Amino acid sequence: MTDTPDVVVIGAGLAGLTAAWHLQQAGVDAVVYEAQDTVGGRVHTDEVDGFRLDRGFQVLLPAYPAVRALPGLASLDLRPFTRGVIADGPRGRTTLVPPWRDHRVFGSAVDLVRRRPRDVLALGAFSARDVVASNKTLRGRPRRATSDELQGLGLSGDLVESVFRPFLAGVFLDRELRTSARAFHMVWRSFLLGGGALPAAGMGALPQLIASKLRAGTVHCALPIEEITGDGVRLRTGQEVRARAVITATDAGTAAALLPGIPAPAWHSVTTYYYRLDGPAPRTDPTLLVDGRSGLLLNTAVLSNVAPGYAPAGKALITASVPERLDEPGLEADVRERLSALYATTTRDWDLLATYAIAQALPVMGPNHPLRKPVRLAPGRYVCGDHRDTSSIQGALVSGRRTAETVLHDHS
Fold it and tell me: What is the reported pTM?
């Protein structure tokens, strides 16, 4: 173990691993200390009875610029979702899938134009603007809530409530859509350009990929930091490690405990249920279904249709997430009832494989949320994570890169 590295990184999540990788690429001796027994932070995949279960339903957007820049991205063997979503609302099902992406939905696209011509025009207009806009343009949009933005874009209230609210509630874990409209446009553009995908081996393969690019012995797991000292850090074991710079790359709550002056964030929560089916799935397509008919705002997919490796051969894995709800008596029964309607089949024989009730799933990004916060706190003291940029995989990766660049600038 290096006792006097140039830089100590606290936390082996996406931001911390990215910061360490950029520093090592520049020849800086950086080590990473992680409190948990593995890398990844909130991005982790458990293996249960041959099934791969991400800790909370997560989707990777391959069009994120920071994802495209990852070294060895092809090794993740990304498996795509259908480029769109099917929403079940009071007026029936609405399919938002561009017909040129999937010829099977051509009839649904024609029906959408017939039933909602104004919505189609409004949707096409702002989507086209988002696709061609620069990051600077999107970040400079007015500071308001996504709910207000959708209304201002000319979408009907019915389309917002039956399609956009359940879909975006699953993305931002924000039932009221108070999330920054600027963040919405940035995510929407990436969704349009590349859709969603899963690594063949689970979302945990993403941090594992970055960790694999670090020098052997860089990451030390199961070694929590007790305190940031004047000249480095002290581990909970009592050992002190001196360093020229310390980067705190933990979640925002832990960062607030380690760093006076960092405010503790508000969080969005989610409960995700995983169901095992000993037989064929009720659908064969890799499409996200969202529930715009009930108050659950459920989003669900047959993950083994997206990435077959998520389930053993001959079995299926279905995920269902409820934003801003934690597991409570009766909730799973309500979810099972809605799944029965969404998939038009009985769910009595579906085996509940695991439940993830995650109280701190995503930091809140309100209308005035700054999309880029300073990463330098004091000489030699830095902080990174998705709470310093956007609450997303893109935000975590960008924050790690920005912090490394700042450290290199300060110590050049």
Answer: 0.93
Sheet holding 92-96, edge to edge: 92-96, 85-89, 288-291, 299-302, 316-323, 267-277, 351-363
| C-beta of residue 159 within 8 angstroms of C-beta of residue 345 | no
- Provide the 8-state DSSP code for 263: P
The DSSP element (H or E) to which 68 belongs, if any, is helix 65-68
Closest CA to 228 of 13, 380, 373: 380
Residues 129, 158: Cα–Cα separation, whole Å:
23
Provide the sign of the torsion angle of the four alpha carbons 131, 137, 138, 143, taken in this order: negative
Per this entry, what is the length of the chain?
A: 412
| Nearest CA-CA partner of 297 in 176, 208, 196, 384 | 176
Residues 292 and 207: their CA atoms lie apart, in Å, by 33
Question: What pLDDT does 101 receive?
Answer: 54
Stretches where the chain sits below pLDDT 70 are 1-3, 97-114
DSSP one-letter string for 301-313: EEHHHH-GGGS-T
Cα 350 from Cα 338, distance rounded (Å): 13
The tens digit of pLDDT for each residue in 276-285 reads 999 899 999 9
Whether the Cβ atoms of residue 242 and residue 275 lie closer than 8 Å to each other: no
Phi, psi at 162, each rounded to 5°: -90, -20
| H or E stretch at 117 | helix 117-132
Strand ranges, E, within 63-145: 78-80, 85-89, 92-96
Triad 335, 339, 341: Cα angle to 5°: 120
**Exposed e or buried b for every residue in 167-195, given b needs 16+ CB within 10 A?**
bbbbbbbbbebbbbbbbbbbbbbbbbebb
Q: Please answer whether residues 87 and 294 qualify as being in contact, where contact means their C-beta atoms are separated by less than 8 angstroms.
A: no
Give the E-state strand segments of 15-141 in sequence order. Answer: 30-33, 45-48, 51-54, 78-80, 85-89, 92-96
pLDDT confidence of residue 263: 86
Q: Which residue has the tokens 């009907």?
A: 156
